[in-house]
């Protein structure tokens, strides 16, 4: 992991190791560069920072056999995370997803994602004029050898996620891979529906609003008192356009991570409407059997609704969690070129219904 401040994947930036790849053998995040291996764009080389060329991975576009494999592959890339700086420790709050280092013996340090369970703040000290954070971060590992376990970490172990934007070369490689499997996949799946709201059998993952202990006086307040539905103009002229979800630039999207795998699109949509009166369409991505959680995208027609919904999901007075206690992590507005948007562009009839 390196921690460059580059905020986009320009051609020049692609020369740097400014992407992260979650490697297949150990599921840990590594800083990488993405290159084409050949002239046609259907072969891609992933080079690891601080490792020799012997460790390069070569991927071939037509080697993907299913939508799940493509989904998993795209989800293994993102912008390189940034080391948390001592004076910025207050940016890290409960429920936030971070990337953290974990040690497995002498020189074996690997990076995995985790959710912040608690931050125990301590007064910062100053050494030679430099601010030093002595806070403790209680994290719960989302993957890796310690998945599900809780660990104490210091500021030096915490990296901030920088978004799911992917390098242009990877986007172009994925396009080719999708084209290659598209036909075969569509032919092989029968009985799928165009309805994006997949029916789910139970609602164990149903979301609820949990008030933070510090705002216990809010518990008996109706949500409208905290979330002023009547106080602001809301709602947009409804548009009936039907869409290719990934490509429609009129749709505004929020990525929500750390969802229960049993959660259905309709449950999320109904919950949001009940709480905020915002009409949304929700897509829950398929997850792999060994993944402890899944991710979804909430889509709506107007920017004003998006800002309101982000305000609701990121309200410091409460958090949204499943009945099982798993907190939602609504971190991003989706960009047109990140991997989530790319996955939404994938022909919906080809997604395997969950
Ligand atoms: Zn601190």
Automatic annotation (TrEMBL):
Residues 17-159 form the SAWADEE domain. Coiled coil: none annotated. InterPro entries: SAWADEE_dom (IPR032001). It comes from Gossypium mustelinum (Cotton). This is SAWADEE domain-containing protein. Pfam families: SAWADEE. Transmembrane segments: none annotated. One of its GO terms (molecular function) is chromatin binding.
